[in-house]
UniProtKB/TrEMBL annotation:
Matches recorded under SUPFAM superfamilies: ATPase domain of HSP90 chaperone/DNA topoisomerase II/histidine kinase (SSF55874)
Name of the molecule in the record: histidine kinase
Organism: Brotonthovivens ammoniilytica
EC supergroup of this enzyme: transferase
Domain Histidine kinase residue range list: 115-321
Short name of any one Pfam family annotated for the protein: HATPase_c
Annotated keywords: Cell membrane, Kinase, Membrane, Transferase, Transmembrane, Transmembrane helix, Two-component regulatory system
Length: 326
């Protein structure tokens, strides 16, 4: 548009000079000078604009929250850019307000869930004590149901806290054998009812992590192993291995196994798989939460399986203190 306007102005000047009787060579020389000045001006303007937008692009790439760009954009010498900047700031302000409102809403909901869970644990504990005073079969069945309920309540609590692991952890050297034994003892009634046979004799190593969070992850892996057991029994084996720069804790079960086409999706949120669809209790949250917590704790997690034969979920603890993931 600018070039067309300049061309029209040049043509008008040339016609005006012609009517005044100015020599043709002088008119052409004037137009050449005009073109040179125009070329220099456009080159300078291009360089200044390119430098400015390179700064804006670099700033956008460095920002963790891109919607804050308008607050940090460099000032421009052009009135047009300043007007765009004002419009962008007004638009982003509404986005930032909406984000803050959403964050506050999520925090209130998370606080409510945590308080509700702590309140629920009080009657659960009372029911455990009542069941402990009576040894009849009906009470044993009730105790098993209570353990399942407590597992679900605990899962909800850890899910609510999974984004704030760094605010609720204590990294120290932990004995994986002791951690595994505590998890098994805690769910003993449910494991016994399902005829689960668990071997932990080959768990011999120590790692640096948080025993509470690791215990929760192990509990979820054991629940899955029992949930997808075969009809003829439930064989589970826990063992550790020393590999290069890491300690690997594996939970192996001789259960239904996982299809090759599904193994890469088992950690996805909400994925239940072919076997999970047969069970009304399957939610697809357990392994997803395990992976999420592992990432926060700097622990690797992997899976291998053969349908109809076995499944093995491994936790990879790096040597030294844990490092929290992104």
């Amino acid at each position: 548009m600018i070039l067309l306007f300049q061309a029209a102005c040049m043509a008008g000047c040339f016609a005006f000079f012609y009517l005044l009787g100015l020599e043709k060579n002088q008119s052409i020389l004037f137009l050449i000078a005009w073109c040179c000045v125009l070329a220099v001006w456009m080159a300078v303007d291009y360089i200044r604009r390119k430098t400015y937008w390179n700064q804006v692009s670099g700033l956008l790439e460095e920002l963790e929250k891109p919607y804050l760009l308008s607050e940090l954009m460099p000032k421009s010498f052009r009135l047009e850019d300043r007007l765009y900047h004002q419009i962008l700031r007004k638009s982003n302000k509404s986005v930032i307000d909406a984000v803050h409102e959403l964050e506050n809403s999520q925090k209130e909901y998370k606080d409510f869930i945590e308080n509700w869970i702590h309140e629920v644990k009080v009657p659960l504990t009372s029911m455990y004590l009542i069941c402990g005073t009576k040894k009849d079969e009906e009470m044993k069945k009730i105790k098993v149901c209570l353990e399942q309920l407590e597992n679900d309540v605990e899962k909800a609590l850890f899910y609510a806290r999974s984004d704030t692991v760094s605010q609720d952890y204590m990294i120290r050297e932990i004995d994986l054998y002791q951690t595994a034994v505590k998890v098994i003892q805690r769910g003993s009634s449910w494991l016994i009812q399902n005829h689960a046979q668990i071997d932990v004799e080959q768990v011999t190593d120590t790692v640096y992590s948080d025993d509470k969070w690791v215990g929760f992850i192990l509990n979820q892996l054991l629940i899955n192993a029992v949930k997808y057991k075969k009809d003829d029994g439930c064989q589970i084996r826990l063992y550790t291995q020393r590999q290069k720069n890491e300690t690997v804790l594996s939970v192996w079960d001789q259960g239904m196994g996982i299809k090759d086409s599904e193994i890469h999706r088992i950690f996805d949120k909400g994925f239940t798989g072919s076997h999970g669809r047969m069970q009304a209790a399957a939610t697809g949250i357990g392994l997803y939460l395990c992976r999420k917590l592992c990432r926060r704790l700097g622990i690797g997690i992997s899976a291998e399986s053969k349908e109809g034969e076995y499944t093995c979920i491994s936790l990879h603890f790096p040597d030294g203190s844990s490092h929290f993931g992104e």
